[in-house]
Structure formats: structure tokens, C-alpha cells
Queue: 2 jobs
Job 1
Amino acid sequence: MSAHPSQLASLIDRFAKTDGIHETAVPRLSLIRCSRPTLPLHAVYEPAVCIIAQGSKQAILGDAVYVYDQNKYLVISVGVPVVGQITEASDAEPYLCVKFDLDIATLGMLLLDTRPGPDSGEPAPALGLSKVTPELTDAAVRLLRLLETPPDIPILAPLFERELLFRLLQGDQAAKLREIALGDTRLQQVGRAIDYIKRNYREPFRVEDLAGLARMSASALHSHFKAVTAMSPLQYQKQMRLQEARRLMLQGLCDAAAASHSVGYSSPSQFSREYRRLFGLPPQRDIARLKEVPGGFVSA
């Protein structure tokens, strides 16, 4: 008999008692709980699969809105700035979600043991939605039940992870998962550019140099980068800078002027203009708003 989403919800509720993102003893597995809807929150989503057991959420990438709940799961192929918002949650029925980070090595080894599918040659958007199947829910439940028997985790977690990935490879996001793990795909080329910007977001860069790193022409990089992330490399860098500045201010590590300098801005006024354009409010008012809203920091 297949597991029901209520079984998944019960396990998350048991091991994630408070609102927030909870890492677990199972490698790459996190549990997320939130008891109220949240503000739209900018965050960088890393490669992962998110399976909701209760509640709903939306993620915005460029002009595309991805709405998912217990009937649809989300796959993220590369690290990309996203606006996420939990839209259905309450004390009685909190938002409950499983987040499993995708390990490229494990995924690649599994693909060697399965029949490869067709490669479109063109990178797809970094986010994708598919219907949750009973088989995928079963695999997720088995993985979570390992939290009941910690000594079993080192032996059984790798097996259940392969089962979960196998079920994902049988779904509509199979091509996206193959792009992540196999060969020198367009997605991996774009991924090299993304990784460089993430590591060096404080420093200016030449698009031609970035294209050389990705092993494609500047025009091809611009086209494929936008297809995956819904933004240009320079826009991606700007969002990385502004999100890091916001994090520093939220944590009380520095004020707006210091944060702007820390992330690479030479002009505080330019920083304030671009910050307001992205987040809707100037830095000081935005931070004050976020600190007043319970649950506003839950982003995964």
C-alpha cells in the first residue's frame, strides 16, 4: 500500500516541532515548518527537490510563477535567486515540506545504471514542477522514517536516496536532472558561470571572460544564462549583492552604508536605489518590516 501525504506530514510534524528550516541526521535532508503565510522573500535556491506535505507555496523566477503543494513538487537545477512565499499555513495546519539537496555524484552514478533519455541540447529554466506520485511519496516517507532509527542511517540512507532519485528520474523533470549530472551540457556550462559569480559577486567582471570560463561565446552565454535564470549575468550579480547586504543587515552585523560597501558598491545612493527597486522599500524600512513579521525568514 502506498504512503499518503498525511503520513509524510505526520513525520515532518514529529521531527520539526518549531517554525524554521531543520537540518536532519540524514545527509542532505531538511524539514521545513511554518505556521503562517510569509512575506515574499528573496533567496538563492540551490539544487534540490522540495516536496510539500501540507500547505502551499509559490516561487517566482523572472516572470514565471511556480505554485506547488502536496500535489506538485519543485525541482531546482542550479543556484538561482528566487522570490519565495508560503501562501497557505496556519497553527492548526502548518506548512510542512521536505527539502532534499541534490548530490551530483550520486545522481550521476544512478544515471549510469539507468537508460538515458533524450537530451534537448537547450537548457531549461532552473525551476520545474511535476505531479507528486505515490511512488515518490513512498520514497520520501522511507527516508524520513530513518530519523526514528538513527543507527540505520549510514547504511540505509544511501539506498533510500537512490530510490528517491530514481523516482524523480521517472517523472517529468528527468531531463532537468540529467542536465545536472551528465557531461558538458549547456546547463553545466551556465553553471560554471553562475558558480564564478557566486564566489566573486563583490568584484566586477567582463562578460567575455565569463563566457570563456563557460566555454561558449558571449552571445550564447547571455542567451542560455537568461533561459536558465531569467536574468543576465550582471542582473544575477546585482541580486547576489543585494541579498547578501540584506542578510548582513537582518543579522545586525552592519548598517546600510557598511553593507553596501561590503558587497561591492562604491556608491551608497546607487545601493539604496537598487535595493528599493528589488525589495520595494529602502534598506532601513525593509529591515524593520521583516523583523516585525513572524515567520518572515522561512525561505526554503
Job 2
Amino acid sequence: MSGISGMSGTRDDGLGRAAGWGWFLAWLLVGACAGIGLAAILTVGAAFVVLAAVAAVFLLRSGPGRAVVGGVSGVALPLFYLAYLNRGGPGEVCHAVPGGQSCTDEYMPVPFLVAGALVLVAGCVIHVMTGRRGRAGRVSGN
């Protein structure tokens, strides 16, 4: 009875949970790749979108379906990067460069940061809730 925990008769799924988070992180990377691809569609974005699609097909065939919400959380990474790039905004921001200065218009970073945090947390919460629902079904099904 090495895989049984206590009196409940349920399988000790500590390794199962870790594997579930591994699949979630794999989907997070797919979502990040797709988000970057869509943000940069006019330059290198098409390559990122194709890479994300290929990885998604692989993950759909081999991983648990509930981990797909990691793709939603993955969209947070490009949003965090946009917040970082606009950290000096809003308005025109100038930096000294050899021989003068370089100025760019930047947006307010807070909306990107808030949207990224909301998307990241929403995906994680959904992943945890679906994992609990799955474990509760296994316990009551025994």
C-alpha cells in the first residue's frame, strides 16, 4: 500500500500535483509564446505563433486537459514585459546615448501590470480549483 495515504483510501498525489504544475508551466510558456507572437505579428510574430501552435498540439496530445489554463496565465508574461518597457511613462522619456540623447513615447505601465497580474492569478486559481475538483471526484468515487 505504498501509494495509499491514511484512512481515506485516496492515493497520495503529491507527485501528481507536482506533475500537474509542470504541465501548467509548459502551457504557460505556450501562452507566453503566443502572446509575444501576436504582439509582434508584423515582425517575428508569425514564427512565435507557429511555435506556440506546434507546442500546443504536442501538449494537447500528451498532457492533462486541465493544465490548458496555463496558456491563459502565459499571456501575462508579455504584459509584464510591456509594463517593464514603459516603466518611465507616461509621456516622452529621454535617455543619454553617445553623441546626444534618444527619446521615445511611453505609455502608462500600470494597466499592463494590472492586466498581467489579473490574468496570471486567474489562470493559477482556475488550475488549483480544477485540481481540487478532480481530487474530490476521485475521493467520492472510491
